[in-house]
């Protein structure tokens, strides 16, 4: 009777505007799906042009090339006898929509525009697209001639409709619609849709994967049905890493799980499921059935095709599985490593250079590169020909075989310890030992000559000699002398990145890696145009607390024993003179706050949307056991003063891997002024008024009790 349907979904490493590469990956996913018996194939959001085209969506070229790719797909024998669901932008009556184009055997069945656009955080879809606001309405779309010549169709259905095949009914959602409170799958399910599809462009954030999985499973837990989710994967040209996790769920349980982090450009999941399981599941939910009798029907596009076979009694079906989530430390080890690999191979550079200070942040960055080398060697061992080809191009050796992560690291990763008279021997030794253990090509150099030359020019011009505060200098002199050291390191980092391989008789240049964490960026505890100014930064969206846990993970999983002494040492910039040969400067003392406090401030400011007064009100309860209201007020004021004084630094922040929802990235995620009234006079006066009221109240309570 036809009850076992076989469907396929995929995670593709698409690249914005790489139409040729995107087409090849789409074809490959269709071939794999068909070879495994699938009759329906779902791809990621905007997979033809790439999700991250941004303002290129305004260009008519993007629309033209998307239709050219669609024509190639339609006319190819590879797409015969399988329903293909692909994503691309479509201009309908001079309005641009984010669409799914669903076709079968050279005929377009339906163009389904996105209804709920993602427009928060990193997403700006309303800038480029318009949501389809005509619920359950389908109208004619006039195809461009390039498509008419292939399909023989002049018009096709466009709008909020569903597909009715011979054996079931399919309805599409697009990414954000799953997250919306009124998700289309609710009404579609009540109207008899049995298979829901979702094409996503969902990026990685630490500890986010379970939310997506829960949403998918809950979509069919109350209403029954099969839910098929596809997602973009990899770095498609900016700060985000799309983390795959393609999945298939039925009646509230996962039946197929894709990888979250992988160097495979194409990953296809196929599942065979029994439609009768959906029907019997729904049949006993009386509340669902009562609601179904009142639902407004969706326009149905009839499809003379079945996802099942007539004789499928003996066909085995998939059983529920337990989803395996990565720990945050595993996510840090894998996500930024995959992002770095995509950036390296697509930028056609020969490797990375990292100023390695012997502290936690730069060491964590080094460990991520080492993890990337592990992933490359593992992928090659598992037969990934693309990764092998990319590795050979990077090292410029057509016979090279990356088998040992340390050996591969030596070829593509240069670390550089830039000592000054303020550097300790301890940090020098730590950097050297870590470099030895991960296998990087390590350089030791001293910047004192360059620093003295620059300060000497100033002294010659002005006749004044700045001094560190320990030698009687002012705070202005002290800070300026620290900044000169930091900026010299940035200049030297780029010089060595461009010419180090030249000195070794090797072609190409290196990408400079930054290593400022999200908390330091939020506080502005960095020198503008110092070593935080790099090409990319894999830890710029990760907190100090998470980085410390990641370092411990690397000690245990990579056996990098050099990290033990790095973990135990207090974080320091080493920009002020040593005292008796020992470091006297520490980060937390300089900042006037701890890294733990910074994480809390960051989450309250960005995620909870708290200004100074609201933050104070929340913290007097959170910290009531450890701080008085006056102490809390002092801490909040200090944070907001420092945050606002240093906000201008965020405008030049190195592009960083996005991993935290309280990132201060000024590019598009955290849009704020960079010139503030740093007195916060009105806001701080409200805090003071509340502090005085609380002190008066506590005084009255004390009098009553005594």
From TrEMBL:
The gene is Nadsyn1. This is Glutamine-dependent NAD(+) synthetase. InterPro entries: C-N_Hydrolase, C-N_Hydrolase_sf, Gln-dep_NAD_synthase, NAD/GMP_synthase, NAD_synthase, Rossmann-like_a/b/a_fold. HAMAP family: NadE_glutamine_dep (MF_02090). GO terms for cellular component: cytosol. Residues 5-275 form the CN hydrolase domain. GO terms for molecular function: ATP binding; glutaminase activity; NAD+ synthase (glutamine-hydrolyzing) activity. Its EC number is 6.3.5.1. It comes from Podilymbus podiceps (Pied-billed grebe). In the C-terminal section; belongs to the NAD synthetase family.
